[in-house]
Amino acid sequence: DTGVSQNPRHKITKRGQNVTFRCDPISEHNRLYWYRQTLGQGPEFLTYFQNEAQLEKSRLLSDRFSAERPKGSFSTLEIQRTEQGDSAMYLCASSPSGLAPYEQYFGPGTRLTVT
Amino acid sequence: DAKTTQPNSMESNEEEPVHLPCNHSTISGTDYIHWYRQLPSQGPEYVIHGLTSNVNNRMASLAIAEDRKSSTLILHRATLRDAAVYYCILNTGTASKLTFGTGTRLQVTL
Hints:
The complex is a heterodimer.
Chain A: E1 5-7, E2 10-13, E3 19-24, E4 31-37, E5 44-50, E6 53-57, E7 65-68, E8 75-79, E9 88-95, E10 105-106, E11 110-114
Parallel strand pairs in A: 2-11
Antiparallel strand pairs in A: 1-3, 3-8, 4-5, 4-9, 5-6, 7-8, 9-10, 9-11
Chain B: E1 9-13, E2 18-23, E3 31-38, E4 45-50, E5 55-56, E6 61-64, E7 70-75, E8 84-92, E9 104-109
Parallel strand pairs in B: 1-9
Antiparallel strand pairs in B: 2-7, 3-4, 3-8, 5-6, 6-7, 8-9
């Protein structure tokens, strides 16, 4: 078990460019979550998948954001036409699903800087 | 989501116990109390969770008030590696997202 991995770890982009981040969850976990964290704040929920189905999206996830999990394994988060306000740490987490309150395992995050 | 209230920061000396409080007066009967921590430059890490009874694991203990309106995370012997932001989160058993507040920043000194 190598844990949740995220790539890239850092991304610097110019305003208006598109960026895509990848998350590889723990292999037996069927739930995958995306969060965003800005400096001095706790992580904020963006969206989550159960297998390949996207079951919930936050109002924070504007039309410029899209997330996919095509085969129920890895996931990608794309931001189109980036803005300076998109600068943040983007965190991915995974967990099993079921009736128990399973803990979420977080990756190290992708730090996005929009210049 | 029911809200939690935590102190912004706390300090502790190394090898002493630390009690991190959390108030959640609007907790519902189905809410579990979760604690996560975030070390510098890392993603959050699960610490412990409980419903009504006190819980112990290798990392910490969770003491839950009888009326469930508050709880305390106990680190029995703080080390420098425990310096982190600690988040107290309420979450129903099958709910998806975690709703983080700003947490308590714990500083541990020699």
